[in-house]
Design a protein that fits this description.
Blueprint: H1 21-28, E1 32-36, E2 39-42, H2 44-63, E3 67-68, E4 74-76, H3 77-83, H4 85-88, E5 94-97, E6 103-106, H5 111-121, E7 130-139, E8 154-164, H6 167-188, E9 193-196, E10 206-213, E11 219-224, H7 242-253, E12 257-259, H8 265-268, E13 276-291, H9 293-297, E14 301-303, E15 309-311, E16 313-320, H10 321-331, E17 333-334, E18 337-338, E19 349-353, H11 359-374, E20 379-382, H12 388-398, E21 402-406, H13 408-412, E22 416-420, E23 426-429, H14 431-442
Parallel strand pairs: 3-7, 19-20, 19-21
Antiparallel strand pairs: 1-2, 4-6, 5-6, 7-8, 8-16, 9-10, 10-13, 11-12, 11-13, 13-16, 14-15, 17-18, 21-22, 22-23
Helix pairs in contact: 1-10, 2-6, 2-10, 6-7, 11-14
Bound molecules: adenosine-5'-triphosphate (ATP) and magnesium ion (MG).
Length: 445
């Protein structure tokens, strides 16, 4: 993308309403614009990151064998009356009446709707196991929307639902979700720690929240520092392998790690004192096993192997896709702006022309721009007639992980400069070598 043809409405001033870095930077970098309290338009740069995260979530869910579909944002109230949650959910639910006086709602989650889809089409245990998911906007009329997209009222969530014949199978689905979530967060470049949590209004027996540690997080967490040394890495996973998935769950959840809702001081005291940590975290996902709660209330049964109607065992599993955009920035920024991890960068390489209009610089930039694009390295080319300082400030704010700087002086010596946004370190390279280096950096991403 050439900056002169893009829509990147950068703010010069620091917006006063933003209390935390990610919110401030998303506004300053022209990623979002507030439409109403807790409701945002996603401007091109923000939209690009959101779509990139969505893509990673889709890839990892489908790798785990989960099937995408799309349910609507608006739902009929009657389904929620069946489960009993229409009254229970309270003021967070946005209730709407259509012109025929039918009660509707903007979905805060989708257990009822998916259970209705399931019961209308699945009859036999032979069609199980089944996990369906979608990535769709949700609405929760939060009392205090804040921190930009981190606690919005309208937000983008991946929510998946498993249907299984037995509790044992449903627990395997739970483990599969845990494993796929660990992979998802790691690919995005963040560490999210599964912590024992409270099930809240969804109701259930087993649940873990995934928390990314951050001083600005809204949850208070207690953990054994040994959990922060675990990493998923590039191990191969067979998602049908029950023992392997169970092993990973045990590896990642056997150490003490809980939110304040389930914190147990006596248990925590057993962690060696030098490893006890109390900190804050951002909830970026949660998994639940809730048994037959919805299938019984809504009559979602299959014919079991003996022919008897059996309510299915279910769970639901969510990732806060739009919240993750903010969380990623909380974990990856400095005073000058955002520092995207390579896996999620909206533009992989920034290209700065120090002397727009100089024919050598323009020609070299054009060649690099085409070369980067041809290698799939989505470049952002600052081709404006601007001072070098302003161009660097824009690139630093927007956060491209790598920047190639092209100027007449370097070109006279046959070089351009490749700079890491994270470390600030630069190398002088020929334009060809710079292209090859960028391709190599992104080869495994
Ligand atoms: P929270 O405790 O933060 O209110 P929750 O536990 O009510 O969240 P879940 O029902 O578990 O939320 O939803 C799954 C995920 O959706 C959460 O882990 C979080 O990442 C995201 N999420 C929930 N509420 C919001 C919100 N208001 N704005 C942005 N993302 C949200
Ligand atoms: Mg939650």
């Amino acid at each position: 993308m050439r900056l002169t043809r893009y829509f990147l409405p950068i703010l010069k001033e620091t917006p006063a309403e933003a209390a935390i870095a990610s919110h401030r930077l998303m506004l300053r970098a022209g990623m979002i614009r507030q439409a109403a309290s807790g409701i945002y338009s996603w401007l091109p740069l923000g939209f690009k990151v959101l779509k990139r995260l969505e893509q990673i979530v889709h890839e990892e869910q489908q790798r785990a064998g989960h099937i995408p579909l799309l349910m609507p944002t608006l739902q009929p109230a009657d389904l929620w009356r069946e489960s009993g949650r229409y009254d229970d959910y309270g003021q967070e639910m946005l209730r709407i009446r259509d012109r025929h006086d039918r009660d509707m709602l903007y979905g805060p989650t989708n257990e009822e709707l998916i259970t209705d889809i399931f019961r209308s089409s699945v009859r036999s245990y032979k069609d199980l196991p089944l996990t369906l998911y979608h990535i769709q906007w949700k609405f929760r009329d939060e009392v205090r929307p804040r921190f930009g997209v981190m606690r919005g009222r309208e937000f983008y969530m991946k929510d998946g639902y498993n249907f299984d014949l037995t509790k044992e199978d449903a627990l395997h689905a739970y483990n599969r979700h845990l494993v796929s979530y660990l992979r998802t967060y790691e690919r995005m470049g963040i560490q999210a720690i599964p912590m024992r949590a409270d099930s809240g209004p969804i109701g259930g027996e087993d649940t873990h929240e995934f928390l990314m540690l951050a001083d600005t997080g809204e949850s208070e967490v207690f953990y054994d520092s040994a959990v922060t040394e675990l990493s998923f890495g590039d191990r191969m996973i067979d998602y049908d392998d029950v023992a392997q998935c169970q092993g990973i769950l045990e590896e990642f959840t056997s150490r003490y790690a809980r939110t304040d809702e389930t914190h147990d001081a006596a248990e925590f005291a057993k962690v060696p004192a030098e490893r006890q940590r109390q900190a804050r975290g951002i909830e970026v996902g949660q998994i639940f096993y809730f048994g037959t709660k919805y299938s019984q209330a809504m009559n979602a049964v299959v014919n079991g192997p003996d022919g008897a109607p059996t309510p299915v065992h279910m769970g639901s599993h969510g990732i806060g896709v739009s919240r993750l955009v903010g969380a990623l920035i909380e974990a990856n920024h400095d005073d000058n702006g955002i520092i995207w991890p390579e896996g999620v960068a909206p533009f992989k390489v920034g290209l700065v022309n120090l002397k727009q209009g100089d024919s050598a610089a323009d020609t070299a930039c054009e060649g690099l721009y085409q070369g980067l694009a041809a290698r799939g390295l989505d470049p952002l080319y600052d081709d404006r007639e601007e001072r070098a300082g302003a161009k660097f400030a824009t690139m630093d704010l927007v956060g491209c992980p790598w920047r190639i700087t092209v100027g007449p002086r370097g070109l006279a010596a046959g070089t351009v400069e490749l700079t890491s946004r994270r470390t600030g370190e630069s190398e002088e390279l020929s334009p060809e070598a710079a292209l090859a280096r960028c391709a190599q950096i992104y080869a495994g991403v």
